[in-house]
Amino acid sequence: MRRSVSLSLALVAAAVTPPAWAHATPGARADAHAPIGVMAEHVHREGEWMVGYRLMRSYQDALRDGTDHVSKERTYSSVAAGGYGYHTAPTRMAMNMHMLEAMYGWSDGLTLMLMANYVDMSMDAELHAHGPAAPVPHRMDASGWGDTEIAALFDAGRTAHGRWVGKVGLSLPTGSVSTRDAMPHGSHGAMIPMRMGYTMQLGSGTYDLRPALTYSELRDGWSWGVQASAVLRLDDNDQGYRFGHRGEATAWVARLWNRSVSTSLRVLGTRWGNVHGRDDDLSVAMSPENDPQAQGGRRVDVGLGVNLMAPPGALGGQRLALEFLRPVYQDLDGPQLATDWTLNAGWQFAF
Ligand SMILES: [Cu+2]
């Protein structure tokens, strides 16, 4: 008799237990968060905090114009010799973006988010004076705080298995747009400190609106989601230009192996515009890095990811995740360095 009462109670409890998406944080499941490269796709319950660290590492090592590969020689050869006529060709770029995030559930329907990031980048390039002298290889480095984002995430509706999450974010221009490093100059390659090209700047210099809309579903043993997001530049920066707007669309599917482990497959399409206006300190003839019309492009990436969630206990509330993406399509306004791969990693702790 007692046994059947407790069984009935368990059945009732199961029937009224909220669906899995209601527990987006501790005690939930590994795939309750999207692949780590996707941001702002979940909300928190009232009074709950989350802090996290994310690393985005990307590597570029070849030039493209449109969908075609372009050699460094063609990039820095004179127009008369069939080249693009720049004096410098970038050959490789590595970037680490370290992101510190904090989220707070203001209410069950509204989560506030703050994200700061520290960027370090290095770029290899070769200067060619269009004369008999040999090209001069050199490396440039830039590091420092990038732009800071404040955002509101809101519960935008629920379905039988899923939820909509909206985001309105504002990016503040805390990153420098006037970083310099020594570069060779003239036919003898004398090293002179000069402003670096657009992609080696730490921030945008502008206030940017960052909206996003996500739909995700948690099913029995698997999950999926889609997100659209944008970066919309609201003004020109104090160097007289703005970066192009940026739009992203992504879709993922995840397999939940057990409560603590999920793996994911994701497709990401990104489109970003050229620079509007120009920085007068950047000589376009010097490098495609300085050319406002060689900055835009579109790319499709495919990524594999893994999410790990600690079971309740000493490590409860902690998550680790990794995601590795490679492009399957790139169409760049160039010559521009093409992406070889991107690695996203993250640690998150909710309490
Ligand atoms: Cu969170």
Helix/strand layout:
Blueprint (H helix, E strand, L loop, with lengths): L1 H15 L32 E18 L1 E3 L1 H5 L11 E20 L2 E18 L8 E10 L2 E11 L3 E11 L7 E6 L4 E6 L12 E11 L3 E12 L7 E2 L3 E13 L2 E12 L3 E2 L19 E13 L8 E33 L1
Antiparallel strand pairs: 1-2, 1-3, 1-17, 3-4, 4-5, 4-6, 6-7, 7-10, 8-9, 10-11, 11-13, 12-15, 13-14, 14-16, 16-17
The structure holds copper (II) ion (CU).
Copper (II) ion (CU) binds next to loops.
Give a brief outline of the structure.
With 351 residues, this protein is mainly beta. It is built from two helices and 17 strands. It has a single domain, classed as Autotransporter beta-domain (Lipocalin).
Description:
It is elongated, with a radius of gyration of 24 Å. The two termini are 40 Å apart. It has 2 helices and 17 strands. It is mostly beta strands. The structure holds copper (II) ion (CU). The site of copper (II) ion (CU) has 4 residues, from loops.
